[in-house]
Amino acid sequence: MNRLRPSFALAILALVLLPPAHADEIMRWERLPLAVPLVVGHERVVFIDRNVRVGVPASLGERLRVQSTGGAVYLRASEPIEPTRLQLQDADTGALILLDITAQPGDGALEPIRIVEGDSRARRYGDAGEASAEEQSAPATAAVRPSRETPSSVVLTRYAAQNLYAPLRTVEAVNGISRVSLRRALALDTLLPTLPVSAKALAAWRLEDQWVTAVRLTNTSARWIDLDPRALQGDFVAATFQHSDLGPAGDSRDTTVVYVVTRGRGLAQSLLPVISSVDASRNLTPAAASGQAQGGGDAQ
User: Fold this and answer.
1) What is the count of structural domains for the chain?
2) Do 167 and 266 lie in a common domain?
3) Are residues 35 and 86 in the same domain?
4) CATH number for the domain harbouring residue 44
5) Cα–Cα–Cα angle for 13, 17, 22, nearest 5°?
6) What value does the mean pLDDT take over residues 10-30?
């Protein structure tokens, strides 16, 4: 019987003595919270392959150490932790992934987790619709933008309102929307020149060739003011008020937000002296132009 050569035998022995490699535990994100158990005193890695921000409840205090870098989230519990929910938010799209963590004493570390998208991705509000026959027949070199089931101005306005008024967990990500920089101390005196309000730009987002800018409006007078989009001055595609009126200065209802949508440029380049070809304020009566309701809108 032939004996194994010494070098070959040593190679086999080395393979036998090597510790077994730990495979990643695959979890599919299908919009249901993912259960992530931890072992106290041992770090567990969650790979998500995207840059994320981690939302950690204040109730955890110093019991959980969280680090996020390069598409990996590192979790290490120093004490037992009852079931607690963490939020992973995509830094680019705003999409959320929910993790339900627990931590219990144990002997060894658990294997890393890799989160992948589920096979059946739910259709999201604002997604591009199916290409039309003309779009499908267009040359490959032509820059054809697929039509949307919902107008871009509506998608932008809804997204901006959610970011300002809704809890973070309810903000639905929309492909293509990105946050844009906004000039500080942007002069907005000409936005509503007929109304006694102060205006301040808060934030702006862009989708394709349209921008939406959220502008805070505060009543500076002692009377109620009715808000009408036709009183806005500038070159705008659409405008929507969060509330239909403003209470007197000092009242809890004296402030609201208007979402102004522009095309091809931001709000700063769409204000006076750039004026739309149609002056909608010409359709207002003098009373409406000053923010007074038909038949008297002043507070009693």
Assistant:
1) 2
2) yes
3) yes
4) 2.60.40.1860
5) 135
6) 61
Q: Is the pLDDT of residue 99 over 90?
A: yes
For residues 176 and 267, what is the distance between their CA atoms, to the nearest angstrom? 19
Residues 80 and 191 in one domain: no
- Tell me if 239 sits within 8 A of 257, measured CB to CB: no
Say if CB 246 and CB 222 are below 8 A apart: no
**pTM (2 d.p.):** 0.50
Range of the domain at 167: 153-289
In angstroms, the CA 206 to CA 156 distance is: 7
Query: Concatenated DSSP letters for 248-262?
Result: PTTSTTSEEEEEEEE
pLDDT score of 41 more than 50: yes
What is the rounded distance in angstroms from the CA atom of residue 123 to the CA atom of residue 128? 10
User: What element of type H or E holds 188?
Assistant: none
Tokens encoding 292: 């007074």
How many whole angstroms separate alpha carbon 115 and alpha carbon 24? 10
Two structure tokens written together for 38:
């931890």
Q: Which residues contact 92 (CB under 8 A, 6 or more apart)?
A: 50, 51, 178
147, 211, 155, 152: which is closest to 179 by C-alpha? 211
Q: Are residues 43 and 109 in the same domain?
A: yes
Closest listed residue to residue 65, CA positions, set 80, 76, 54: 76
**Does 169 share its domain with 230?**
yes
Q: Exposed (0-12), middle (13-18) or buried (19+): which is 25, by Cβ within 10 Å?
A: middle
